Amino acid sequence: MLRPKIELKTAAQIDEMRPANRLVAECLSRVQELIRPGVATRELDQFIERIFEERGARPLFKGYPGKVPFPAVTCISVNEEVVHGVPGDRVLKEGDIVTLDTGCNLNGWCGDSAITVGVGRIAPDLQRLVDVARNALDLAIELLHQRGKYRKWSQIAARMEKLVHDAGYSVVEQFVGHGIGRAMHEEPQVPNFRARNWAKHDFWLDAGLVLAVEPMVNMGTKDVKLLDDHWTVVTADSKPSAHVEHTLALTPSGCEVLTDRSAFA
To answer: How many domains does the chain have?
Structure first.
């Protein structure tokens, strides 16, 4: 099996990654207080940008290369928008679901995380979609604690995909998670499904591995399309999508959630 070149982090390096990831976790925890009907997505992005500026952190997303450089520090995706939504004048409405995905570099190390939350009271089917996405990520974390039983990522991904499919939903396959460290995107690629090319891309779950795991779960088809802004990705059938993400560090004792938000709740 050909393995991607993966940089395992030392315990000292994982310690150095904590501040960036704690800051991302803090931002996503605090911004939830602002998510309500009548708020424009630009306001949420500006809130997070101010925190990064105050703490001396460099946003990872703003200016990210593309046909058009990404214009904001946060990807904000609403309802049928899957990922990479561009903040702007869109005003959130009661019953929407909104995903906020952001990351920063602090002291040379990166942090990355995403949440999907409801705006006001949301319909039960939307809440179930969000819950299933969260459950898929929680399952990955739980299984990564059991590395004696689950030694390769493909085993984790297959269980995540089964959970989503058993709920009647689909997993987006055009976008996957990634390794993270001094750069936002490092090897390996981290699918949330059973990839067809595992022989080339599967990897061992070794201590020192740091991954951004980010299931994207669609209510309908797994297919997506890109909008004319060159960034926003939406579901092909216009049905809702939920996206969640944590940066996870594999240690000799298990799996640590570096972007854990519980301390800021």
So the answer is: 1
Tell me if 192 sits within 8 A of 216, measured CB to CB: yes
Per-residue model confidence as pLDDT tens digits over 84-140: 999 999 999 999 999 999 999 999 999 999 999 999 999 999 999 999 999 999 999
* Whole-number Å distance between alpha carbons of 228 and 50: 28
Give the residue numbers spanning the domain of 118.
11-257
Give the neighbor-by-neighbor strand order of the sheet with 233-235.
Answer: 81-83, 233-235, 224-226
What is the domain-level CATH number for residue 136? 3.90.230.10
Residue 202 located in a structural domain = yes
**Cα distances (Å, whole numbers) of residue 148 to 225, 252, 254:** 39, 11, 10
Determine if the pTM surpasses 0.85.
yes
Task: Quote the CA–CA distance of 248 and 143 in Å, as a whole number.
Answer: 12
On whether residue 264 sits in a domain, the answer given is no
The answer to whether residue 245 sits within a structural domain is yes
